[in-house]
Each structure stands twice: as structure tokens, then as C-alpha cells.
Amino acid sequence: MQIETDEGVSGIGPADTGAVSFYIDTQLKPLLIGQNPMAIELLWDQMYRNAIHGRKGDNMMAISSIDIALWDLKGKFLGQPVYKLLGGPVQDKIPAYASALGFSIEPKKAKERVKEFIRQGYTATKWFFREGPSDGPEGVRKNIELMKALREAAGEDMKIMIDCWNSWDVPYTLKMAELLAEYRPFWFEEPVLADLPQSYARLRATCPVTIAGAEHEYTRWGCKMLMDMGAMDVYHVDT
């Protein structure tokens, strides 16, 4: 997605779904045409207030896309990288983990992928477990088998994170924490539905594994609510 100005400066932002693009074209574009692209906070406020019936999901992703493009445009106009406009660097480097989204979770292939991540220099990796409460004992067995394979390939020091796809519940998460304990999962990400902050707070208080989430919370106010509740140990806020 690209925003253009009458002075020839443009900015780009992501728009990776049809719904996001549609919302930008039909709802946000009319609010932006003819406006001052440097007034980023004002434009964000106007877009947000316009989305009175949709302040999560695709609508907020669309607003975020515009916001990113406006910051990109401002950086180009001023000849400065955006990180300087936002206050400058806090540290020179940050740790990264290898996400295995899209790769096979068949244990043998997963082990090969982990070894490749290690060769690339990663010290942590995240895997996406497909089995949940509705899959019964066989699903539990598959989860254990996958985690065992990952740990065997990773060795003792590599961190292994588990993304649960919002598909577990509190009892199942506690059960998996017990069954996977010997393989030392570093965190469980989004183990329960994102709409159940009380369940996250309960897990954080009782689960021995670090609880991560907030990927499906889209505003500063929603994130603050989760923090005030002490719902998670690690916050992954996307927008």
C-alpha cells in the first residue's frame, strides 16, 4: 500500500489481506485525501474514531498500515530514518528467534529444520502445535512426540517456544505444561482464546511455563487492560 503526495514524496505500508485493502480504499482513503500527511497523530485519531464499530482485526490493521506509511513518508520528507523520529535507538541489537510457521511438524522433518536454524546462528525457535483438547489422547501424544524431537535436535541451551493457536483451554494448558516439563518449553504463546483475559491471568498465576500473548489485541488501551490484569508474562502486540 502506498500513499502519494502532491510534492512527489510517498510512503509505503503493509496491506496483506483483501479485507484490509478494501477497508483502506472505502473507509480510510476518503479521510486522507487532501490532508496534511505530517499530521500523523491527528489522522490516526480521525481514522480510529471513524472505526467506531470495528476496533479490532482488519479495521485496525488497515489503520496501522496507513500509520506506517505516513511515518515512512515523513522520514523520507525529512531525510531521516523513522527510528530517529521516534526517539532514536535504545540498544544496538536485539535477540531474534526462528519462527517455524509454514514448516512441517512431522518430528523427523522438524528436527532437521531445527538443526538448520542452529547452523544459521539462532539460539531460539518457535513452533506451532496443531493438536488441542478436541484431538484427545492421540493429540497429546503427538504434542509430546514433537516437543521431544525438537529438544533432541536443539540440545540443552536452545530456547523452544510453543504457539498454541488460541486453541487450548486452561486445564489442557496446565496438563501440557506438566507433560512437556522435561523438554523445557520456554513459553506457551496464546494458549487460550484472545477474548479470555481472565484465563490468561489464571494461567500466569498457576502455570510453570511462561505465558505469552496479546497478538490479537490491537490498541494501546486493550494492551494496558491486559497489563493491569497481569494477564501475561510476554506481550506480543502486533499493531
From TrEMBL:
Which cofactors does it use? Mg(2+)
Biological process according to GO: amino acid catabolic process; carbohydrate catabolic process
Signal peptide span per the entry? none
Among SMART domains, the record links this protein to:
MR_MLE (SM00922)
Question: SUPFAM superfamilies under this entry?
Answer: Enolase C-terminal domain-like (SSF51604), Enolase N-terminal domain-like (SSF54826)
Entry annotated with the keyword Lyase: no
Q: What are the recorded GO MF terms, alphabetically?
A: hydro-lyase activity; magnesium ion binding
Q: Which keywords label this protein?
A: Magnesium, Metal-binding
Q: Does the keyword rRNA-binding apply?
A: no
Database matches in InterPro entries? Enolase-like_C_sf (IPR036849), Enolase-like_N (IPR029017), Enolase_C-like (IPR029065), Mandel_Rmase/mucon_lact_enz_CS (IPR018110), Mandelate_racemase_C (IPR013342), Mandelate_racemase_N_dom (IPR013341), RHMD-like (IPR046945)
Query: In its UniProt entry, what is this protein called?
Result: Mandelate racemase/muconate lactonizing enzyme C-terminal domain-containing protein
